[in-house]
């Protein structure tokens, strides 16, 4: 969509933030790079690293987050997952800036594509994890879907093991017992030993737990559409921070908000495929620090992530 050049200067940005009371912040990996978490598409990002390392035998580095690929070979993801599992990272000034917007009663919602849960660590409450998070994991076996807390699979992740479902294991055990009993009662004569093997192979990857992060080929939670529908009625400013806006449907948020909503981009690299009103280019932490000084605001101190 075309934009009229209504806003040009940092003064305009300060003015917009000052008079807006329903700000939507759309965040991405670029607000966590200063915490030591690489983004995806920069030259030192996760996809470049995966390509360089070449140890995972992926046709495309994005396959690491592809649902079909995961179901075929979950061990690949679990030999890598430890490197993106949220650890003792401390929120960046950019996270704290979003928290400050919330404290000032200006934050309508923070849509984040990040799975590092640093928004929670910064104390942001009005946050939507568009791509899920490691907070929970779910069994991938059709018809099971058992959910557990992410902490339950943490040890497996750090041991590079494929975590398995406790319910599926219990069901398998019960089935085996039943079969053994039936075999015994029939004197073992009518049962083919191969039956067991056939059953075990009914679902490849039986009982594999997958962290509840959204992979390519998976639908976003309905919350995304619901929140967007609600927020588009109220939003008066959109701030896009640290994202290349390359992944739909989250990137489409920009076009789903009313055309009159001013859009500010805070990012290291420009966005050329979508219209922004103002692009503040550079390190997001430095930019928000400058904005805070101009607004007369003080960023809350960093809180260590004790998780
Ligand atoms: P990208 O890696 O695509 O984009 C990160 C953006 O942040 C880039 O434009 C960088 O220039 C910018 N950036 C990096 N460090 C910065 C800094 N310190 N200050 C300011 N800008 C900085 O990451 P996302 O847009 O978040 O999805 O990626 C979107 C989705 O693609 C992810 O959620 C993930 C990925 O595939 C899934 O895995 C499903």
Automatic annotation (TrEMBL):
Can you tell which superkingdom this protein's organism belongs to? Eukaryota
Q: Name one GO cellular component term.
A: mitochondrion
Q: Where does Zn(2+) bind?
A: 139, 144, 165, 168
Q: Where is the active site?
A: 131 (proton acceptor)
> What is the required cofactor set for this protein?
Zn(2+)
Subcellular location as annotated: Mitochondrion
User: Is the keyword Metal-binding in the record?
Assistant: yes
Specify the Deacetylase sirtuin-type domain's residue ranges: 3-298
Which keywords does this Swiss-Prot/TrEMBL entry list? Metal-binding, NAD, Transferase, Zinc
For this protein, what is any one GO molecular function term?
NAD+ binding
Protein family (similarity comment): Belongs to the sirtuin family. Class I subfamily.
Which protein is depicted? SIR2-domain-containing protein
According to its UniProt entry, this protein's organism is Acaromyces ingoldii
